[in-house]
From TrEMBL:
Swiss-Prot/TrEMBL GO biological process terms: translation
Organism: Brassica carinata (Ethiopian mustard)
UniProt similarity note: Belongs to the universal ribosomal protein uL14 family.
Domain of life: Eukaryota
Matching InterPro entries: Ribosomal_uL14, Ribosomal_uL14_bac-type, Ribosomal_uL14_CS, Ribosomal_uL14_sf
Protein name: 50S ribosomal protein L14
One MF annotation (Gene Ontology) recorded for this entry: large ribosomal subunit rRNA binding
Keyword annotations of the record: Ribonucleoprotein, Ribosomal protein, RNA-binding, rRNA-binding
Keyword Kinase assigned: no
This protein's GO CC annotations: mitochondrial large ribosomal subunit
Amino acid sequence: MGKVLKVVDNSGAKKVMCIQALKGKKGARLGDTIVASVKEAMPNGKVKKGAVVYGVVVRAAMQRGRVDGSEVRFDDNAVVLVDNKDKKTKTDRQPIGTRVFGPVPHELRKKKHLKILALAQHIA
C-alpha cells in the first residue's frame, strides 16, 4: 500500500499510487488486482488526475517462482488500468487502454487476464 506504480498502457495515466490490494494483506503480486489513485496523467487521456481506478499488476520487482523452477523478476513495478463494470467477477474487467507497452508475464493467463496478454507486445 502506498507504492507508486508505473502505468504501461495508453489510458492517459502515467503513475498511480496503490490504495489497496484486493487479495490478501501482504500486498499485490503478479496478476493481482489493486485499487489505485492516479497521481500523474496526460492532459488528453481517458483517465484524469485524482481518479480512483482499478489496475492489474503486470510487472513486479519482487521475484516470483515458476513451476519449472525458474524465477521471474522485473526492474520496475507496473500496472495496466482496467474498468470495473461487474464487481462480482474479475474476468469481466477489460483494459481501459488499447495498447500495453513492455513485457508481460504469462502468469496472467492463469488469472484470466487474456485481453491484457492479447494487447501485450512481448510475453515473458
